Amino acid sequence: xxxxxxxxxxxxxxxxxxxxxxxxxxxxxxxxxxxxxxxxxxxxxxxxxxxxxxxxxxxxxxxxxxxxxxxxxxxxxxxxxxxxxxxxxxxxxxxxxxxxxxxxxxxxxxxxxxxxxxxxxxxxxxxxxxxxxxxxxxxxxxxxxxxxxxxxxxxxxxxxxxxxxxxxxxxxxxxxxxxxxxxxxxxxxxxxxxxxxxxxxxx
Length: 203
What we know:
Blueprint: H1 14-39, E1 44-48, E2 54-58, H2 62-73, H3 81-115, H4 125-202
Antiparallel strand pairs: 1-2
Helix pairs in contact: 2-3
């Protein structure tokens, strides 16, 4: 039976993460030593733990190796060996952080493609099932948000309709009052005219 492929992702458990770091660190330091002995290679390895603790291995003088590295990539040399070591380790750490960011970006871009239904041939059955669950969760959240927005719109429309009804009621009441006032004024005017006519005949 073949070995199960381990998915490369951040270990959530801090205890398991520390144990794995300790094992992998020992293994990579051993591999660096073996590479230098077996192949007569000049090897310099620098590892920072998550807490910032430094682990390193150098088959030769690490300052010389860092100077060679700086010369190879076109960086200026430092006249202070201690400063050179600190700068070299900082540069290596920055390079590692940049590479980690690049891998994270690539992973996120691939995840977006997968969510869009592209590049699925690279995924295994377990990954496809996980993607399916994520999509179902996403659809449920979208439907929930659509329901919330629709309910809010309906509530606002009902409130607006009620306000318009109240406004119409007040306008009708005002018109009715104006009609009554107009009729009363007309009756008073007609009454005065009739009395004037009667008085004229009597005289």
